[in-house]
Amino acid sequence: MEPNRIRDVLVGKTYYIRTFGCQMNLHDSERVSGLLDSFGCLEAASPEGADIVVFMTCCVREAADQRLYGQCSSMKSLPPSPSGHRVIAVGGCIAQRDGEGLLTNVDNVDVIFGTHSLGHVAELIARSFEDGSRQVFTPEDVQDEATSLPWHRAVSYHAWVPIMTGCNNFCSYCIVPYVRGREKSRTIEEVVDEVGGLVRAGVREVTLLGQNVNSFGRDRYGHPRFAELLRQVGDTGIERIRFTSSHPKDLLPETIDAMAEVPSVMPQLHLAVQSGSTRILKEMNRRYTREQYLDLIDRIRDRIPGIALSTDIIVGFPGETEEDFLETLSLAQTVGYAQAFTFIYSRREGTPAARIEDPTPREVIQNRFDRLVKVIEGTAYDFNQQALGRTIPVLVEGFSKKDSHMLQGKSPKNQTVHAPLPEGWTPEDVVGHIVDVEVDRARTWYLSGTVAGEPR
Ligand code: SAM
Ligand code: SF4
Ligand code: F3S
């Protein structure tokens, strides 16, 4: 379909995107949004007011599938859209995994597009509007074009910057490599140019994205060049650099050096451990032992004292025993995580772990999960206590949902910080700016205090 024809069909249509899953999907949604904007569409505040509803889906755990089916069928009871015809599009990882199969599971879906075909979404939607047809496009082997698409960023001061797509690790429980393909790195120049442009546009913080950023460049240059990337991104003048995710097996000493030496790299690291038991780690195909992980943590802390460490942990991997689980508990305690995303293992069809039978009752796994959450709450609380009495630069993101005068932002260590908006200040004075906050209260999941000094 000619671009002009697509524009004729889409101009003035309203759209709403609902995103599930990880930051990769969040970023992909920003590209879909940018593309629809470029054809004259307008963002709507809710599905009710939208002619186009897009679901960006995730299949990393089972609950997500059920949620998508529910969300799609709830669209049937909406009042008619402004143009009188609503097109429902499903993208992201479930779309990539199921392709055409989704049409039978969800009878009111009009468009299905995969993780490698974002650039086609406007055309697919336009075709569906034109003749009411159902459009499916989920190829596996295409050049990723997402980073060349127009970009509609959700906020002005922060940007998600993908540095690579895909994953080569095939952890035995994980579906991601099957729905996102193999690792494909951008060039250093492309990423650095992009961040330079963002700095000129007023962006203060970037988060570099990849399933395993430590292996950035391996596919393109023959060896990882993440440390070099960090240094060059640091030279762009961006004030805050974060990145996610890091696989422990690929975190090189030169990367720890770059993290320690580049001032804009924030003192925070997300390093997924998944389990504290070497036996389970082997079953998970993680390719490090408990001891190697703990040794890595020591080396990071030596070089970057006070760094905030966060992680992902799976409870109830098939065959996990109480002894294995106790090793996870003790590892979490030893590391003293500032934050952890904890998950109950979810069987994913097509992954090697899905073939392992496990008779462990659900209640036992739930009980382990609850005990782990308690330990993490303790370590997070202890970590936050260290901020008491300190003055911390906070990048303000907005206001607390409970109190519209309570500004909310992030510390360099990625802690949520609250402080009352000073008398006479407006939200525009602070959102997207950095303010110093004197911390006088430290809870498990946030710090609070008072603003000291002017926003900058
Ligand atoms: N690539 C990232 C890494 O390895 O750190 C993780 C990406 S994955 C989207 C996020 C987290 O989901 C994983 O770290 C893991 O803890 C969790 N996860 C993945 N597959 C899972 C499964 N089958 N059941 C439960 N949790 C799972
Ligand atoms: Fe999944 Fe492992 Fe790849 Fe992370 S590194 S996306 S957990 S396969
Ligand atoms: Fe989910 Fe796909 Fe991300 S499966 S976690 S949205 S890569």
From TrEMBL:
Which segments constitute the TRAM domain?
385-453
- MTTase N-terminal domain segment(s): 13-130
Q: Which CDD domains does the UniProt entry name for this protein?
A: Radical_SAM (cd01335)
Q: Which InterPro entries match?
A: Elp3/MiaA/NifB-like_rSAM (IPR006638), Methylthiotransferase (IPR005839), Methylthiotransferase_CS (IPR020612), Methylthiotransferase_N (IPR013848), Methylthiotransferase_N_sf (IPR038135), MiaB_methiolase (IPR006463), rSAM (IPR007197), rSAM_horseshoe (IPR023404)
Q: How is the cofactor bound?
A: Binds 2 [4Fe-4S] clusters. One cluster is coordinated with 3 cysteines and an exchangeable S-adenosyl-L-methionine.
Catalytic function, reaction form:
N(6)-dimethylallyladenosine(37) in tRNA + (sulfur carrier)-SH + AH2 + 2 S-adenosyl-L-methionine = 2-methylsulfanyl-N(6)-dimethylallyladenosine(37) in tRNA + (sulfur carrier)-H + 5'-deoxyadenosine + L-methionine + A + S-adenosyl-L-homocysteine + 2 H(+)
Compartment list: Cytoplasm
Alphabetically sorted, this entry's keywords are: 4Fe-4S, Cytoplasm, Iron, Iron-sulfur, Metal-binding, S-adenosyl-L-methionine, Transferase, tRNA processing
| All copies of domain Radical SAM core, residue ranges | 153-382
Q: What is its EC number?
A: 2.8.4.3
Task: Tell me the cofactors it needs.
Answer: [4Fe-4S] cluster
Q: Which annotated residues bind [4Fe-4S] cluster 1?
A: 22, 58, 93
- Sites binding [4Fe-4S] cluster 2 sit at 167, 171, 174
**MF-aspect GO terms:** tRNA-2-methylthio-N(6)-dimethylallyladenosine(37) synthase activity
Q: What does this protein do?
A: Catalyzes the methylthiolation of N6-(dimethylallyl)adenosine (i(6)A), leading to the formation of 2-methylthio-N6-(dimethylallyl)adenosine (ms(2)i(6)A) at position 37 in tRNAs that read codons beginning with uridine.
**Family statement:** Belongs to the methylthiotransferase family. MiaB subfamily.
Q: How does it assemble?
A: Monomer.
The protein in question is named tRNA-2-methylthio-N(6)-dimethylallyladenosine synthase
Organism lineage reads as: Bacteria, Bacillati, Actinomycetota, Coriobacteriia, Coriobacteriales
